[in-house]
Write a structure and sequence with these properties.
278 residues; alpha+beta; Ribosomal Protein S5, domain 2; Alpha-Beta Plaits; 3-stranded mixed β-sheet; 10 helices; 9 strands; 20% strand
Length: 278
């Protein structure tokens, strides 16, 4: 699901350089390993054109390594910029294929491209199916973003290779309920639809405050709450009482010795775009 939080990328022609201000400025690579550069290069490689000398200036607002899709935002901004400056004018479908191939899945890149809430699955070995899920216009996200960073690959490593049939059925049913609750507007079902047995119990071992933050969000009036991505951010969905929910989550974090900041924002119903090009 795309949230109303935006990174900005400015690209000019010249000798290659990368500069970053804002979130993760001292952590993201300032060379060709930067995922924004990866995105731009992917477009030029896709259309078979040489990559020109470019200077990248990144203004990051999305918290880095907090389970909020910062890597996907970087990839998508690079792809969208590359599409504009190369003249390729790629469709959203083409951008999604390139982005999912870089990221390995469309879970975060698709909503960054389309906006709103999306479901993405692989079709065969080289194709992706992405569909949008209607969500209420007044739906807001309330987050608590801890100061600690999470490495996605390390976070995945704590997950078991095998799961029980019971837990698989549990999550499959809730995934179906989640989509139906959002699209039908029966948001009272989100409390049950966002429950999980496949990853949150294992990730609680490294972030013991997580279930308490989720409980606090529900107590404050959230329809549902869960670990955002690989964490450590916890995200609650609400259509009212956002300030109360934010307070309850922050207070629970304080009680459990977790430093961080609460955030409230609406769902972004539009995806990444070009502000100006010349």
């Amino acid at each position: 699901m795309a949230l109303d939080m935006w990174n900005e990328l400015t690209i000019t022609r010249g000798e290659f350089s990368v500069s970053t201000v804002g979130e993760g400025a001292d952590l993201v690579p300032q060379d060709t390993r930067n995922l924004i550069v990866t995105g731009v290069n992917a477009v030029f490689n896709h259309i078979g054109e040489p990559i020109p000398g470019l200077q990248y200036h990144c203004k990051n607002v999305i918290p880095f390594a907090r389970g909020m899709g910062s890597s996907s935002a970087a990839i998508v901004s690079g792809l969208v910029a590359g599409s504009a400056i190369s003249g390729a004018d790629l469709s959203k479908e083409e951008l999604t294929i390139l982005a999912a191939d870089i990221e390995g899945h469309p879970d975060n890149v698709a909503p960054a491209i389309y906006g709103g809430c999306t479901v993405g699955v692989r079709n065969g070995t080289d194709k992706w199916i992405v569909d949008q899920v209607n969500v209420p216009e007044d739906l807001h996200a309330v987050l608590f973003v801890p100061e600690i960073h999470t490495n996605t690959h390390e976070s995945r490593a704590v997950l078991p290779d095998m799961i029980s049939r019971t837990d698989a059925v549990f999550n499959i049913g809730r995934a179906a309920l989640l989509v139906n609750a959002l699209s039908s507007g029966r948001l009272e079902l989100l409390k049950y639809a966002t429950d999980d047995r496949l990853h949150q119990p294992h990730r609680t071992q490294a972030f013991k405050a997580m279930p308490h933050l989720i409980e606090a969000a529900i107590k404050g009036g959230a329809h549902g709450a869960f670990l955002s991505g690989a964490g450590p951010s916890v995200l609650a969905l609400a259509t009212g009482r956002e300030v109360t929910i934010s307070y309850e989550m922050a207070e629970s974090a304080r009680t459990h010795g977790v430093d961080g900041k609460p955030m409230i924002m609406p769902v972004a119903h539009e995806g990444a775009g070009v502000i100006a090009s010349s």
